[in-house]
Amino acid sequence: NLQEHSVVLVRGGRVKDLPGVKYHVVRGSLDSAGVEKRNKSRSKYGAKRPKKEGATS
Prior knowledge:
By secondary structure, this protein is largely without helices or strands. A two-stranded antiparallel ribbon has the order 1-2. The chain is built from one helix and two strands; from the N terminus they run ββα. The model has no long low-confidence stretch (mean pLDDT 86). The protein has one helix spanning 42-45, and strands spanning 10-12, 23-25.
């Protein structure tokens, strides 16, 4: 997914259990991929809205 020279978008938000961690990577933007097959909280993980099953058009 990410490599040495990948560009990512960073947002604030610390993790209480991990000292020194004060930021999160925004998934699904720039070089970071979204989470596949994610249905709940999709916007937080960069997942697209799933296609309807059996849609005709």
